[in-house]
Amino acid sequence: xxxxxxxxxxxxxxxxxxxxxxxxxxxxxxxxxxxxxxxxxxxxxxxxxxxxxxxxxxxxxxxxxxxxxxxxxxxxxxxxxxxxxxxxxxxxxxxxxxxxxxxxxxxxxxxxxxxxxxxxxxxxxxxxxxxxxxxxxxxxxxxxxxxxxxxxxxxxxxxxxxxxxxxxxxxxxxxxxxxxxxxxxxxxxxxxxxxxxxxxxxxxxxxxxxxxxxxxxxxxxxxxxxxxxxxxxxxxxxxxxxxxxxxxxxxxxxxxxxxxxxxxxxxxxxxxxxxxxxxxxxxxxxxxxxxxxxxxxx
Length: 298
Description:
By secondary structure, the protein is an alpha+beta fold. The chain has helices spanning about 1-20, 25-35, 35-40, 105-120; strands at about 60-65, 70-80, 80-90, 95-105, 125-135, 135-150, 150-160, 180-185, 200-205, 215, 220-225, 230, 240-245, 250-255, 260-265, 270-280, 285-295. It starts with a helix and ends in a 5-residue tail after the last strand. The relative contact order is 0.09.
């Protein structure tokens, strides 16, 4: 009887190993994907060195694409979302990235991925959003990044909202859907992490040389050094020309009458200096003031 039990047990283990129910496969792959510890020590190398590829969950889906790239994919369920988790390699078999891409997804699905990443990779992340209103449409590109030592995890989305249409979970200008949602794992040396845009309210005084000081209207701007744009708080373009250094924000604008305004903001203490030139009066006035960071709409 004992010998019979041993035979049955050995048979069951053989079946389980063959079907990948207990070892390897997508279950093991998902455990690696969602492990902060794994990505924090991961080094991007060749396909053969990849612990994720060694789970044997991947199949080759595109070979020598554009005479340069190979793609492998595996079915992975991330929370409630069934996705294609992919590997992109160069022909040298060097891994460029791991990613999943969801075209025509919804903002609700973006939130599912965001909450999933938050619970796995932590609350320390970089948030960037670029909003461009054009008429009744507003296009938003959103990027959330976690840096786990040499690995960068980036969750991105692009979507357009029609202000004349009622808000829905499935948002877009015409098709009723987002353009895409992506979750990408890359080497930090090959990844750009956009810096958060900064919204500021600046109180400004115009010092008429030795004359009395009087107040000017506040300067309210959103500075996006990634795109080189200075925007109003409603994200419309101001026409300011932006220059950024480690210590300063500088922006300038002028009109057809050769009047100009040059503003310099210290990034550390947010003190404002600058000057305004009134060409028709042949006068230059110095500016001074102070700025504070704000949340638009609050």
